[in-house]
Write a structure and sequence with these properties.
alpha+beta, 4-stranded antiparallel sheet, 4-stranded mixed sheet, 9 helices, 8 strands, 22% strand
Length: 262
């Protein structure tokens, strides 16, 4: 009888005391988080660039690209392009890792964002839940946002409509080449390629791809690298000398030197 009582005591203690205590702890944590949720939408910048953007010292996102300033906060992109950005989930794929307890499955999300006006971003995130992976990929895509230069095929009439020159991007075995096309041609590419080119604001373009293009992740990365390379070529119309202007950190050094109030 006493053995049975001790057994019940040990079992009851293990089930009720241990797990019950941990459960209450998690509940308290969630409660505290909920009370803090009132200030969730207030952006408190933590980088110099974020402080300048929030105070209106930087007028447009092009100033950031001009000086190649690293963007470490997704809210900076939202500040300039929040109403224009559109996101598209390009692919969600399960990935597995062999562990001592068996296989651990997680989900890898590829998300592209763009404003259809010369800006494109691509983000990749892996997580145990699909929704978490997509949210993380959107944030990564904002941090990877890059400008896309557009040009003309032939005579420079109207607005730029195609890539300015032949550009190439490569990822893994996939190599993608984007070729300027006449106005009215449309986007000659796969469905995934058309989505990315349209998000970047390109209306007419030929494309050529080699390698294992069925690997969607590498294929869309190669297209993104090709679009990002459009500002890497110095064409004759960019040869004229431009006056150098001060770096934003140098121009607003007095503001940045002030201690930020919490």
């Amino acid at each position: 009888m006493s053995d049975e009582g001790r057994g019940r005591g040990r079992g009851g203690f293990g089930r009720g005391g241990g797990r019950g205590g941990r459960g209450r702890g998690r509940g308290r944590g969630r409660g505290r988080g909920g009370r803090r949720g009132g200030d969730e939408n207030v952006w408190v910048p933590v980088t110099k660039l974020g402080r300048l953007v929030k105070e209106g010292k930087i007028a447009s996102i092009e100033e950031i690209f001009l000086f190649s300033i690293p963007v470490k906060e997704a809210e900076i992109i939202d500040f300039f392009l929040k109403d224009k950005l559109k996101d598209e989930v390009m692919k969600i794929m399960p990935v597995q890792k062999q562990s001592s307890a068996g296989q651990r499955t997680r989900f890898k999300a590829f998300v592209a964002i763009g404003d259809e006006d010369g800006h494109i971003g691509l983000g990749v995130k892996c997580s145990s839940e699909v929704a978490t992976a997509i949210r993380g990929a959107i944030t990564a895509a904002k941090l990877n946002l890059a400008p896309v230069r557009r040009g003309f095929w032939g005579r420079a009439n109207g607005l730029p409509h195609t890539v300015p020159c032949k550009v190439t991007g490569k990822c893994g075995s996939v190599r993608v080449r984007l070729i300027p096309a006449p106005r009215g041609t449309g986007l000659v590419s796969s469905p995934a390629g058309k989505k990315l080119l349209h998000m970047a604001g390109i209306d007419d373009c030929y494309s050529s791809a080699t390698g294992h293009t069925r690997t969607m992740g590498n294929f869309i990365k190669a297209i993104f690298y090709a679009l990002r390379a459009t500002y890497g070529y110095l064409s004759p119309e960019l040869w004229k000398e431009n006056a150098l202007i001060a770096h934003p950190y140098q121009e607003h050094t007095d503001f940045l030197s002030k201690k930020q109030l919490a």
